[in-house]
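Progress against Task 2.4 (sequence-to-structure conversion) is shown through the following example record, which the project officer requested during the mid-term review.
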Amino acid sequence: MELKGESSVDFYRKLLTSAKIFLTEVDGRSSTSISESTSRCQSATASVCQSSISIDSKDIDQQLISTRQRCHQRLLTCSRKKLRLLSLQEQNDKRHLGFKKFVDNLDEKRSANIRRYQLELRDYLLKRLEADRLRQEVDLLNMKIDQLKEEKKCYSNLIDIVQKAIPLFPPGLLQGGSDGVKSLILRYQTLVETKSGFEQRDLSKEKQERRHQLQRLILEHNTRIAKLSTRLAQLHDKLNDLQKTESINEEKFINKTDTKRSTTTVISQLELSINYLFDRYRLVHQIKTTTTDQTISEKLRTIQDFILYRIDLVQKAKS
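Structure tokens generated for the chain above:
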């Protein structure tokens, strides 16, 4: 019985020792498994994080490369567009110069045509006046011819009467010597001749006076027309010169206004930047002593003092 008891005790001790060993082994195995699992989890999480970080960095790199390529393409397209626009601007400038030359040539041609038209008009008016004068002379000559025809008719009637009256006289009266009839006929002829002489003289004098007066009026009219035409040509040339000078002055004024506008913008920007620097960068004693009504030179001097003070501080810090 004691052997059995001892054997049972030993048996139970062996069981307890084996159980402790098993527990320790199980605990060690569990701890190793837990550590392995934790290490595996940590490695997995690290690998996942690294993979996610690598994936994110790759995506970011790809996005940056794509954006860089897009920006490069945009820059190329912008440069091409700029070159194309510059070429178009040069072409437009050339066209503008050609059109300006064309307009100047047209103005010169127009002024030349106007002068030629004025000269032709003056010549036409002179010829028209000469034609009117010749027509008046022709009318006067026709009137004189009509008067001579009427006088011829009167003389022809007188000749017919005399020829009819000659047979009525006795045959020896006209040949022999009756001076009464001859003196009567001669006296009548002399009276007719003197009358016609006086009429012709009066008509010739009046005609000459009228002709001289008409020529004088024609000359005055022609000289007046010539003076007016030359004055008109001079005024037209002066008008063209004034228009050219006006266009040149307008261009100069536009250029001056553009330059003044650009200078004013630059000056205003400089003033704004100086005021900004003056308000931002000042020393403590300068903030207390400065006033609002300071000049640009004073503001620049305060900014310069601040910059020199900062440079001194940097040099002192380095030393």
